[in-house]
Structure formats: C-alpha cells, structure tokens
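Tutorial, part two.
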Amino acid sequence: MIIAIDGPAGTGKGTISKLIADRLGFGNIDTGAMYRAVTLKILREKIPLDDLESIQKLLENTRLSFNEDEEILLDGENVSHLIRTQEINRVVSQVSAIRFIREKLVLEQRNFAKGRDIVMEGRDITTVVFPDADLKIYLTADVEERAQRRYKEMLDKGVSTTYQEVLEGIKERDYQDMHKEYGALMIAPDAIVVDTTGKSIEEVYNEVTNYIKREEN
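Running the prediction step on this input gives:
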C-alpha cells in the first residue's frame, strides 16, 4: 500500500508521515530530503545554480540512499542533520525545479517504494511521483501557524533565526513551489485535504488514519 502525503512547508507532513509509518509498520521516505541532499552537495561544490552542465555531472556522480532509520545518506554520509538550515531552505526550491534533477529523483523514489507498504511525503507525491497511490492526503494550514511551527523546530535544533525570517521564507517557498514549470505544488483532484491549523499531532494522525482504515476496507 502506498500512502502519499503532499502539501506546503510547515503543515506537518514529516511528523505525520513518520508517525503513521511507525505505528502501522510501514516504510517512510521523505522525498524532500533527497532534494535537500542534492542542494547540499551543490552548495558544497560551490556550483552556481545556472551552471546546469556542472550540476548534471555532479548528479551523475551522486548516490542517495536511506539508512535503517530512514535518514538520508548522501554518498554514504548521513546528512539528515545538515539539510534543514536556512541556507538550504533558500535555494532548495530552485534546485528542485531543475527538470533533470526531478526526473532522476522521481525514478529513484518509485524504486524505493517497489513492493513495500510505505508512506511517501513530498510536494509532488500525489500528482507526479505516485498519481495512482492507494491514498492521497494533502495537508494544509494557515501560513502564520506553519511559520510558527517551523520557527520552533529550528530553535529546538539550535538554528539562529527569527520568526519573521521564517515566515517570509515560507511565503517565498510557497510561491516558488506553486509556480514551478515541472513538479509544481498542487492539490490532486482525488486527494483528501486535511487542514492541520489549530490541531494537535494526535488529532491530525487520527483524522488521517480514519481515511486509511476506509481505504483498507
């Protein structure tokens, strides 16, 4: 069974996906982490984002995988703690808009899911990667609340930032994600929209798992 969870930044996709996977015994892949890992490598190599030839060569020599805890590995290095910085946040949407990157990672994402019960989360999971997923959930929430969640998350990780910076960053990310030429963020016609504004993690979990039970029946 493939459960696809989509939606903009700060809606709780990662938290809910992991909770569902843990409690149901499913695998869990954060596809956004894959784009972030590629972004990290581009930044490390100091390649300009308009140098597509160099980026393509880099991608050909890049290996992405996940460990037993579903943490992202970049060429064998666990970079899960390095891909959530403001620096990555500022450019990951531009990187993920590059068509040949999306095409390669979409193929890898489909391969990761083959023959597994899995929860896949990301910004085009329900529309591009798994348009035939068994269940499609689109999470949404008020932008101010999303910014507050992300701000708290970053402070907890020791990242120095301000609420206003996070809010503006999320608004810019929303715009970029919704206006991509390829893999743009949108609500699939058959997706179930769940608004997480003002709801606890358990409330959202219970709402989503009710839809999973209906699908299983």
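Strands lie at 2-6, 27-30, 64-66, 72-74, 77-78, 118-121, 135-140, 192-195. In part three we will examine how such features are distributed along the chain.
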